Amino acid sequence: MGLMARLQRGSEKQFRSVMEIKRIDFRLYAITDRHQCAPTPLADVVSELLDAGITAIQLREKDLSDAELIELARPIAELCRNYEAKLFINTSTHIALEIGAAGVHLPESAVSVTEVKAQTGDALYVGCSVHSLDAAQRREAEGADFVTYSPIYPTVSKPGYGPAVGITSLAAIAEGVKLPVFALGGITPARVTACLTAGAFGVAVMSGVMSPTNAGEQARRYLDVFSDCF
Fold first, then answer.
1. pLDDT, tens only, 38-80
2. Which fold has domain 3-15+25-229?
3. 3-state secondary structure string, the chain?
């Protein structure tokens, strides 16, 4: 299947019944790591990304207590609202609700999407990390709105997830589920088109945009690729 046909197929995934899946209106999903941004405050970096045109941010700061995460998240949530961007909180559904985030992102080993939606109704988008087709299909059956699949390429951000799975495996995941699949892991701007050609709906990046300097410029390199494709 050629790139244009795959992009059309990916676009069609946006229009499934809202009872099954929320419409995903972003192609670039930025994941935070305040340690990579230091000494620049994370809120400043997120502001730069939003100003560049990124419309979806996952706050993934796993080493913080709930109180610390809420303190970090509140100004970032306000920034996202001002830019009409979506903020996702990693794992913590109750914090996502408390700060008015758009959604929650669940690790592969986290509670079921069914359980989250039973608690929150239709209030939150639910994204999920997956590392296999079985996991992607399970999350789809539970009602996930999208998944990130990783690691596509070797990455220093998540060295514990094993070897890179590659583009062929990404294509199998994209064919095996009907919900949007975001390619994650070692995705540079030069690799975006290959991921889209394999059937990814979009890409998720951490190291590619988490930088104490020039974060907005780095984000625009990714966004320029999507502008050329759509």
1. 999 999 999 999 999 999 999 999 999 999 999 999 999 999 9
2. TIM Barrel (3.20.20)
3. CCHHHHHHHHHHHHHCCCCCCCCCCCCEEEECCHHHHCCCCHHHHHHHHHHHCCCEEEECCCCCCHHHHHHHHHHHHHHHHHCCCEEEEECCHHHHHHHCCCEEEECCCCCCHHHHHHHHCCCCEEEEEECCHHHHHHHHHHCCCEEEECCCCCCCCCHHHCCCCHHHHHHHHHHHCCCCEEEECCCCHHHHHHHHHCCCCEEEECCCCCCCCCHHHHHHHHHHHHHHHC
Per-residue model confidence as pLDDT tens digits over 139-186: 999 999 999 999 999 876 555 556 899 999 999 999 999 999 999 999
Q: Taking the domains of the chain in order of start, what are their residue ranges?
A: 3-15+25-229
